[in-house]
Design a protein that fits this description.
single chain, alpha+beta, 4-stranded antiparallel sheet, disordered C terminus
Length: 430
């Protein structure tokens, strides 16, 4: 029965209606016209709250049906297009069906009757406090009124772009009467509260959850002469960004930068190609950060973690450039090392773990991790040069291990892997 009533209201809401009542009734008039004559041609005022006793509270049941939504990054606003289902009792719109051909309900323009004042408190004022289109309402013989109004609301959100572009935004919209206190008009959330029946899916954002909570706000003047309570319905929307294009751009860029840096550590440390590749990688980092400055929202207090990832990767590339120059200098050094230096190198060579890391695979003069091989030196290095070469190779491989660990930690810290899991779950549910 309740579903049938809802379907009836839905159909009536989109039927064309008359904006005025013909108060000239005669014997040949049909019963519906006679009912409207009785109700609206005898002093009915749509600006007056529909109660016989002004102390009686008008209770309004509210249910929101979300049809579409959109979020603006740069304005930090959420736009929702909804059907607002409101039910209340109008004590001035009652009749006995037995006197009017057993007619128990009819529809009429929403502009002809009293409607509750339902306003968005945290609205973006440039779009108003909410706009609802005029529609038809169903009037029942016991005075119950049911309206389904297509409405659009634009509210401000407190954005958090820490996880951009894998971010979630939690936006709240607070609705309530503009003037009426709780003693006059009280809003009650309906059973279903918020539904997404027939909602249009967004191409970039996913609506994760939508909840409503009723609150009562007490206001009073400084001299305490006036005090009143106002009912509020606070709707909380959690939306999650699902932008495949941005995600793929950042993923490919991050993987490219990591591979370039790690590849340079596998190139033999005396090759000029290594330094050239690092400089190219630095330029690519600068270009990517510059492009991200246009892609990321400029508002919000937090810095996106993905931006910190690329910044740290740029720092790592800079460190590798400096390390490469130091390694070059050590290989070219022919100065007699100090005795302490010789003792330290000999101690490192005797260490089994160090020996395992530094062992050569295929040639005695090359670096075991090399991808690009040099021509074999014509002259064997002297003992002094061998010490500096060993120290340079040890520093090179130690830096390679440290950089690899740093990139692994950065990947888990700044790229939320839970986002991928959540995305797959949402697709399965949809």
């Amino acid at each position: 029965m309740r579903k049938l009533l809802f379907i009836t209201i839905f159909i009536i809401s989109f039927i064309k209606f008359s904006v005025s009542i013909d108060c000239n009734v005669n014997e040949e008039s049909n019963m519906e016209r006679k009912i409207k004559y009785k109700l609206f041609c005898n002093g009915y005022d749509s600006t007056i709250r529909p109660v016989q006793d002004h102390k009686t509270t008008t209770s309004v049941k509210v249910k929101m049906m979300i049809k579409s939504y959109d979020y603006s990054d740069h304005a930090s606003t959420l736009t929702i297009n909804t059907w607002m289902v409101n039910r209340w009792k109008d004590e001035f719109l009652k009749w006995d069906p037995r006197d009017y051909g057993n007619i128990k309900s009819f529809d009429i323009s929403s502009s002809m009757i009293w409607k509750p004042d339902f306003s968005l408190y945290n609205a973006d004022i440039s779009y108003g406090i909410g706009s609802c289109h005029e529609t038809s309402c169903l009037i029942e013989n016991d005075g119950n009124v049911s309206c389904i109004e297509p409405c659009s609301f634009v509210g401000h959100c407190r954005s958090d772009y820490t996880q951009w572009p894998f971010d979630r935004q939690n936006c709240s919209m607070v609705f309530g009467p503009w003037m009426n206190s709780q003693n006059e008009v009280d809003f009650i959330e309906d059973d279903a509260v918020i539904t997404k029946i027939g909602a249009q899916e967004h191409t970039q954002w996913k609506l994760i959850s939508a909840k409503v909570a009723k609150r009562v706000v007490a206001l009073s003047s400084k001299d305490k002469k006036y005090s009143a309570k106002f009912p509020n319905l606070s709707y909380s929307f959690v939306i999650e960004r699902h932008s495949g294009m941005i995600f793929k751009i950042l993923k490919v860029s991050a993987i490219t930068f990591i591979l370039l840096n790690m590849t340079t550590l596998f190139i033999k440390n005396r090759l000029n190609e290594r330094l050239s590749l690092l400089i190219i990688n630095m330029l690519l980092h600068f270009e990517m950060i510059h492009r991200m400055s246009w892609m990321t929202p400029h508002n919000g207090e937090q810095t996106p973690k993905v931006l910190i990832f690329f910044r740290n990767s740029l720092v790592i590339t800079t460190v590798l450039v400096i390390e490469t120059l130091i390694v070059y200098s050590l290989h070219a050094c022919e100065v007699q090392p100090a005795d302490k230096m010789k003792n330290m190198i000999n101690h490192l060579k005797r260490n089994q773990l160090i020996s395992l890391i530094m062992q050569n695979k295929s040639n005695e003069h090359g670096d075991g991790m090399a991808l690009v091989e040099e021509e074999e030196d014509a002259v064997k290095a002297g003992s002094n040069n061998e010490i500096w070469n060993f120290l340079a190779s040890f520093i090179d491989k130690l830096i390679a291990i440290i950089i690899f660990i740093i990139y692994v930690v950065m990947s888990f810290t700044y790229i939320p892997l839970g986002y991928i899991l959540a995305s797959s779950i949402i697709k399965q549910v949809d």
